[in-house]
Amino acid sequence: MSSWTKKPTNDSLVDQLVSEGNIEDEKSISALRKVDRKFYVLEKNKSSAYFDRPLGIGHEATISAPHMHAMTLELLKDDLNPDLKEEPISVLDVGSGSGFFTAVMGVLVSRNGKVVGIEHIPKLVEFGSSNIKNGNPELLEKGIVKIVEGDGRLGYEENAPYDVIHVGACAKNGVPEKLIEQLKVGGKIVIPVEKSTGRQYLECGIKKKNGKLETSQICGVRISFTIDSPIFKVRCN
């Protein structure tokens, strides 16, 4: 269970995530230390930046709780590790929002990889880009990360196929076909999915040679926005 105790620094927040068993991978821990959460929240929420909880970023969106980011990094630790890949790593972050998780993945693949964050709300495209410029400008300057405006259900063809696709909005009607198409064989997608029972689960899927996803349920989640809504609202990262 995550503590909601306020911590004074980004390092102490990361230390808390480690001590509570939310994350173990050393490269992922290092990346979290390099992306300071205070640069990715609204000015009015700066004093709460190191709480382990989601924070609103406007437009009915949030930056997710740090323990959720940590959990996702553990799921993707091998997929985002350049030392384990022969080719440059390509990543798509659907619903990039604050830009925080896009930046963390950018740090992890920065040796020769690329991360595209796609966001449907223009103001959040600006917000996320500005946050990365302030917090981790080298990712933009070196072309490691970029934020684009678009419908995340359709993916982003220009940088496909992807080793990793991360989705921050809940899929009620299954994983969008365009995202499956743009995933490499052996690539991994992490996405919240709502079942017919109404319950939501974080799922991790691996694309097999036949083009299908082999998925596993990681944990239950509660997400307000869905990737299937006519207006693509996302729970941002």
From TrEMBL:
It comes from Anaeramoeba flamelloides. The lineage of its organism: Eukaryota, Metamonada, Anaeramoebidae, Anaeramoeba. InterPro entries: PCMT, SAM-dependent_MTases_sf. The keyword Transferase applies. PROSITE patterns: PCMT. Coiled coil: none annotated. Keywords: Cytoplasm, Methyltransferase, S-adenosyl-L-methionine, Transferase. PANTHER family: PROTEIN-L-ISOASPARTATE O-METHYLTRANSFERASE, PROTEIN-L-ISOASPARTATE(D-ASPARTATE) O-METHYLTRANSFERASE. Its EC number is 2.1.1.77. The keyword Cell wall biogenesis/degradation does not apply. It holds the Pfam family PCMT. This is Protein-L-isoaspartate O-methyltransferase. It is found in: Cytoplasm. NCBIfam families: pimt. Transmembrane segments: none annotated. Belongs to the methyltransferase superfamily. L-isoaspartyl/D-aspartyl protein methyltransferase family. It is an enzyme of class 2 (transferase). It catalyses: [protein]-L-isoaspartate + S-adenosyl-L-methionine = [protein]-L-isoaspartate alpha-methyl ester + S-adenosyl-L-homocysteine.
